[in-house]
Amino acid sequence: MNPAVASVITRRASVPVPVGNVVVGGDAPIVVQSMTNTDTADVVATARQVAELARAGSELVRVTVNTPEAAAAVPRIRDRLDMMGVAAPLIGDFHYNGHQLLAHEPACGQALAKYRINPGNVGFGARKDTQFAAIIEVALRNDKPVRIGANWGSLDQAMLAALMDENHARAQPWDAARVAREALIRSALDSAARAEELGLARERIILSCKVSGVQELIAVYRDLAARCDHALHLGLTEAGMGSKGIVGSSAALAVLLQEGIGDTIRMSLTPEPGEPRTHEVVVAQELLQTMGLRAFTPLVTACPGCGRTTSTLFQQIAKTVQDHVRAKMPEWRIKYDGVENLTLAVMGCVVNGPGESRHADIGISLPGTGEAPAAPVFI
Hints:
Layout: H1 3-6, E1 17-19, E2 22-24, E3 31-35, H2 43-56, E4 60-64, H3 68-84, E5 90-93, H4 98-104, H5 106-111, E6 114-117, H6 127-142, E7 146-151, H7 157-168, H8 176-197, E8 205-210, H9 214-227, E9 231-234, E10 240-241, H10 242-258, E11 264-265, E12 269-270, H11 279-290, E13 299-302, H12 313-335, E14 343-347, H13 353-359, E15 362-365, E16 377-378
Parallel strand pairs: 3-4, 3-11, 4-5, 5-6, 6-7, 7-8, 8-9, 9-11, 10-12, 13-14, 14-15
Antiparallel strand pairs: 1-2, 15-16
Helix pairs in contact: 2-3, 4-6, 7-8, 8-9, 9-10
């Protein structure tokens, strides 16, 4: 964390959770993660996409495990990644039938670094506790952590009904949104407590409570953070496409991160047609870096342009520099210690150009319309 930021942001104390070779929570840096959208049963395609996400900077990668074929593919995906030199831990995303898949394909549970369980659909009625316990037992046997991830769209209906009955008896009933928020939080906390009763250590539990509204997400996580010390996974679920998804996710997560809440983040963006899956990783990194919480690549400062900058040259240079820096980072990170902390500036006129360029480690101030044809470089 940037020292200046550390004096402003005090991160919430949380229990550190090792996930493969990555630590989530405690004093560890906030972790960037992502999720594939391939058919996990397709070993080649899934391994390729995991590698792309990891090389873009995703430190954890989640894959869907929804069928026997997908479960059987996981160990082969892990082996293929190891041969490719990709060490990113794999997270298995289970809904409805995770207990069966892990029982029938034990190698899947061994190859995964973490299991994601949704308390809203891990089981229903009398089978819920049994099926939840079955997954926890596999986690214990393989010494794996779990994320208990409650979601607004698949909320535990029995929990919600019970809380609605409680609310009806209140002298001053809560509004429906608050009841739903409490159901979401209690679902996660009760499941975590049950996992601990079954023998899973706190150092093996991460929680999340995802909703799709910005204000609702902020309220949920403020409440959840105040009621436990579990490591927390942040994400605005179904954030959407393009600028809407980026703005919504950034608005919600920035508020929480500024308050010290959150140990790992994912930007749940819908890719635009032709857009690489890795875009969500870049956005997550840029959010953390612009807030001063982590550094991944040299930041490029560039002016927005105005009537003084009718030439588009500064825009072209800024994009070229930014693309070049990100493409070279895998190599530079090894060669040049601390390169990710550099600041670069590409400015378009004399008004702020020289000043911004002087503040950067390397800057160029291009001439605006009618200015002398000179472009001083500041180092």
